[in-house]
Amino acid sequence: MLSPPWNGSALRTGSRVPAVRDRDYLMDRHGVVFKVIGDSHPGSHYLGYVKYHPDDKGDRWLFGQTYRQNSVVSKSFGILADRPECYIYSETLGCVITGIPRDDVAVHYSCRYALAAIHEEPGAVADNQTGQDLLAITQWIAANGAEGLLGVTGSFLVGCFNERSDIDLVCYGPEGYQVAADLFQQTDLIRPYDGGDLTRLYLRRAKYLEGSSFDALIKQECRKLQGLTVGSGAHINCEPLRSDHDKTFARIASKEIGEISLLAKITDHAEGLTTPAVYGIRVKNILSSTIDEPGSFARSITHMRSYLGAYTGAFRSGDTVHLSGKLVHTQDGERSGFGIELTPWTVSNSYVANLAG
Question: Which domain of life is it from (predicted)?
C-alpha cells in the first residue's frame, strides 16, 4: 500500500525509526488504522482502538478507497468482531480492551515525525484551508527551535483530512507543554474560545460530557490547550503527553471491583496535566455503586486515573468533581491502593468526570 510521504516510520532524512508513542497511529495488514492509547503495552500487542477502517459509508479517502472514521472507542469491539486476536486483557487497566498484534503492524504513523515532515514537504496540506493554518503553526514551531516537542495526530497524521477537519496536536513532557502553552498565546495564529464561540465549544463537548452545566463545563474546558485557528476558524487542541522516558504506568496492575459514582475533592493535580492523567482525590459522598456497602471503600480511595484525554488538565486542587467510573485496586510495585478509573473501553456506561457546584 502506498501512503503520503510523511506516513512511514521514518523521514527520508535517514532518521532512526521512532518508538511507538501514545496517540500515534498504526495500520495493520488489513488496512485498519488503530489509534494507540498509552505507552505501556504487553509484548504481544499495542493497545489502542480502531480510528479509521475501510467502509463504503465513510467520508474519508485513503489508499484509493473509502474509509470511515470512528470516534467511539468501545465500537472497536464490534468493528473487530471477526478479529478475536485484537481482543486482549490489559493488566494495567484491569479489563479486556482492543489492540493491534505487533506482528500485524504494516505502517507506523508517528505524530512527532509527521509534523516535521509536513513542515518540510506540505504536499496537499497546503491546498487545504485548515492545512494552511497548520503550516503557519509548524513555521512558528521551527522558528522557536521546538521541533520534536510537538506532533500532530488525527486526520492530518494519516493524510485523510478534509474541509471539516480539526487540528489535533500533541506535546511531549514538561518542555513540550511549555512550548504548547506559548503557542496558544500567539493570537495571530490561535484565538481563544470567547463570547458566542463558547456555545460552540459547549455543544462540541456536551455530547461527551453529559450531566455538566454550561458554566461548569466551560470552566474546565477553558483550562485546556484549545482554541480556534485565526485563518479558517477550525477547532485546534493540544493534548499533553508524558515524556518519552516516563515510567509512571510501567509497573501498574489493576483489578476491577465494580462501578461507582461519587463526589470527590481534588487534592493533587500535579499528575493530571498530562495523559494519562492521575489526580489525588478525597471522597466526599458516594452516590451509587454496583458494589455492596461501597461506603467501606470511601476512605481508601485516593486517586482518579483517566485514559480519556477530555479530563487531562481539566481539574485543579480544591475542585469538587462528580466522578462515575470503575472502582479498581491498583498495584504499583510495593505500593497498592484503591482508585477510580475512567477508561474509554466501557460498553455499558460512559465514564465521566465533571466539575460540581
Answer: Bacteria
